[in-house]
Amino acid sequence: MSEIILKPKEQPLVPIEANNVTPDVFAGKTLEEIKNLGIWHGNRQDRLSKFFDIEGESSENPSEIKIIIDGSVPKTKWIGKAMTAGEILVKGDVNMYVGADMKGGKILVEGNAASWPGQDMQGGELTIMGNAGDYVGSAYRGDWRGMSGGLITVHGNVGNEIAEYMLGGKMVIKGNVSIMPGVHMNGGLLIIEGNVVARVGGEMKGGTIVVKGIIDEFLAGFKYLGIERDLNLEGEIIEGAYHKFKGDLATKGASGIVYAAVAGNSHIAPY
What we know:
The protein is mostly beta strands. It has a domain at 115-268. Helix content is 3%, strand content 37%. The chain has two helices and 20 strands. The strands form three sheets. Strands 5-1-6-8-9-10-11-12-14-16-20-19-18 form a 13-stranded mixed β-sheet. The protein is elongated and about 65 Å long. The termini are far apart. The relative contact order is 0.09. The mean pLDDT is 96.
């Protein structure tokens, strides 16, 4: 696999938009052509080489390219936008929209990510080893179609309204979640291994949410269906005992399912 290494220079005060930093865009280009790619900085375009020292070798095929961003880029947005193949490794933090519109390939962020990672994701794998902000795998503002495929894994904590309008795919959050995970969810599988503050699955119509931790506040619009053990979801066995709920019945025709671990959640069971 060909490697192209981007060593960040000093990050600017005004964020840059690196939507050209994908194996799809780099494929078939010389190193000089990659250095001269346009990148938005505020209301003007600059060359990619203004913000990164660039070395390595490209390939004709995006699936044979690995982009390594060798350091934190907390002021850089849109890394991996709409990529279909190949790999991106970020050795540090990223700004908003990493992996937005992603259709294939793999992105690994070794640090933290800001809001909207994996927005409208359709395929591929996005892994964040640290924390992430709000709206993980969610829809664009004003749209009703969020993540529809692929896999998002966040090893740390996340913010509000993750999996908003989720249609498909799988999301795994290994840490804690703030409010409204799975809001307006229509499909897919959301697994939360930590705790949730409130309003799991608000106005969800479909899909499945599993919470292994404690839910501080649970919505009233869910019908209790009893206890299930050792869940078999998409070929994965999730061990343990879980309260099962259907809803959100505040939404007409809703058939979403929320599983909440029995341990620690006696306050939300109707007995």
